[in-house]
Write a structure and sequence with these properties.
single chain, alpha+beta, Multidrug efflux transporter AcrB transmembrane fold, Alpha-Beta Plaits, four-stranded antiparallel beta sheet, about 15% strand
Length: about 550
């Protein structure tokens, strides 16, 4: 038995991969007690998840399960052909921010690319290219209007794609994909496809930058009386670790998420708390802050009330989502210096859903700029009931391809012992591809189905080459003769596979939408065929033609 396994190890390798694929497709993964394998469920954020098969681990993309697609360019202007050194970056950024009244993070300068970008939506809408050029000139750059174009740089788009992908994965929007695309007119935009989600759910998760910061609101005595001021005391760049969102409990009356600062940020944060009066014994009060009013209205109201309030504000994209006092224990740690040793505090919000969104934004980071969904974006929604109709049609198409190939093979050889293993091997190749898709969580689209059909055709074509080389050149008396003929056929197959992979590689790498999915499945199918199924068919054919031995 051991000898036969060694002789036919390629056939047994195919069996192993089929078993592994079966586990990947059908074995229960994740899901708690009583949770279905698929169907319609919701996560903690209330996002529906209906992109998985009811009985398998296969995921389906937008066109096979329904959902939303959003396409929009990134908001921004870019000045090109600028020359400056790395040491000048901070000064250029600060000058442009001051000249154009922008906030932190709204300007990015890259000496390597010779570009300066601005991202604020209000800037692009209200400021001309001439004013941007004037701001750059104030920063010491020789910029003109001709150097400025609408849009952002490639590195900014790549950062946005990475952040959006991470944000969608963490939010529970299962099967979402984020890619860069180019319109026929040359405009570059970001495409976000999220199966099983409505337009509003997708826009809520991707439509904002997600820039979170903690702002101290505190009173200062001046010659004109008490004035309230705000100072940013921590940003996402200062964060080392973010905990999971916690619901309100008896010990923690507000939903919150724990934030751990970096060592460098902790010392500065503690110093700010001491300077702004948040380290006083007994903590601070923040009872007069009204979230129904704007920050400016709250400042005016606090100044009129005459009641001292010191609040730590959780601010997301310029909007105050929560205002909290400093409890006595935290104030004590500021005063004694213990906070610097264990720099953890809580960011809270009014509801668990807001806290969950805070957690996602803190963990994924802020987008470099917003997507211009309102003015230049396009959204489309495919009804799940309509998308469900494509699944049986796709299965029918695949089955028709297998039947057609089977008939042609049987008509050619008139020998079931040669043709039947050929069809079974080709079907096993597709089955292994499905296992691969389930294992890596690839959301299947119509383009992938087309790739499966292409794999069936190329796979059987290669198997025919093997059968012809072995069966059409006379009798086979020994394994040595068989192996010689098989190697000749395999060299032809290997060369064809290499050509296919080289031809498909640009499609798999470039952001070409559905063509990319088709290319990826085809390349993986070719590799599976060359490394697993074609050699296994050779072992099967050898057993059949040499069975008298």
């Amino acid at each position: 038995m051991n000898l036969r396994i060694r002789e036919n190890w390629r056939m047994w390798l195919l069996v192993v991969f089929v078993v592994v694929s079966t586990v990947a497709i059908f074995a229960p993964v994740g899901g708690g007690s009583g949770a279905p394998a698929g169907g319609n469920t919701t996560n903690d954020a209330g996002v529906p998840q209906s992109t998985t098969s009811q009985y398998t681990n296969l995921r389906f993309g937008l066109r096979l399960s329904g959902g939303t697609e959003v396409q929009a360019p990134l908001v921004g202007m870019t000045a090109e052909n600028q020359q400056f050194d790395r040491e000048e970056v901070d000064e250029i950024r600060s000058t442009v921010e001051n000249e154009l009244d922008l906030g932190p993070g709204d300007v990015r300068a890259s000496p390597r690319d010779g570009t300066v970008e601005v991202f604020a939506d209000r800037f692009v809408g209200n400021v001309t290219q001439a004013e941007f050029a004037a701001a750059l000139q104030a920063a010491g750059l020789s910029a003109s209007e001709d150097d400025i174009r609408m849009g952002v740089t490639a590195s900014t788009r790549e950062d946005a794609v990475e952040t959006l992908s991470d944000r969608i994965d963490r939010s529970g929007l299962s099967g979402g994909t984020v890619t860069q695309r180019t319109s026929p007119g040359g405009q570059r935009f970001i495409s976000v496809e999220v199966p099983g989600a409505s337009r509003q759910q997708v826009i809520d998760f991707i439509g904002e930058r997600g820039q979170v910061e903690t702002v101290a609101l505190y009173p200062v005595e001046t010659d004109n009386g008490t004035e309230y001021r705000t100072t940013t005391v921590s940003t996402q760049e200062d964060i080392r670790e973010v905990g999971n969102a916690q619901r309100a409990t008896n010990n923690n009356p507000q939903p919150s998420v724990s934030v751990t600062l970096t060592d460098a940020a902790a010392a500065e944060f503690q110093s700010d708390m001491q300077e702004f009066g948040f380290a006083q014994q007994g903590g601070t009060r923040c009872s007069e802050y009204d979230r129904g009013l704007s920050l400016e209205e709250n400042v005016a109201q606090l100044e009129e009330s005459g009641v001292e309030n010191r609040c730590l504000l959780t601010v997301r994209d310029g909007e105050v989502v929560f205002a909290a006092r400093v409890v006595p224990g935290l104030a004590e740690s500021f005063r004694t210096g213990e906070f610097e040793q264990n720099p953890i505090y809580q960011s809270s919000a009014g509801s668990f859903e807001e806290v969950r969104e805070l957690e996602i934004n803190l963990k994924t980071g802020a987008l470099p700029t917003e997507l211009d969904i309102a003015d230049r974006g396009r959204t489309s929604f495919l009804l799940p009931s309509l998308a469900q109709q494509f699944k049986p049609l796709s299965m029918l198409t695949g089955a028709a391809a297998i039947v057609a190939v089977s008939l042609m093979v049987f008509l050619r050889y008139r020998r079931p012992d040669v043709a039947a293993p050929m069809v079974v091997t080709a079907a096993a190749e597709v089955y292994i591809l499905l296992g691969f898709a389930a294992a890596v969580g690839l959301p299947l689209e119509l383009s992938h189905i087309a790739g499966f059909i292409a794999v069936i055709g190329t796979g059987v074509d290669d198997l025919v080459i093997i059968a012809d080389e072995i069966m059409q050149r006379g009798e086979i008396d020994t394994s040595r003769v068989f192996e010689s003929r098989f190697r000749k056929a395999f060299w032809v197959i290997g060369a064809a596979a290499a050509t296919t992979i080289i031809a498909m590689s640009p499609l798999a790498v470039l952001s070409l939408g559905d063509l990319r999915g088709f290319a990826i499945v085809t390349i993986v199918g070719v590799l599976v065929g060359v490394l697993i199924t074609r050699p296994a068919y050779g072992d099967i054919l050898r057993v059949l033609v040499l069975r008298r031995d």
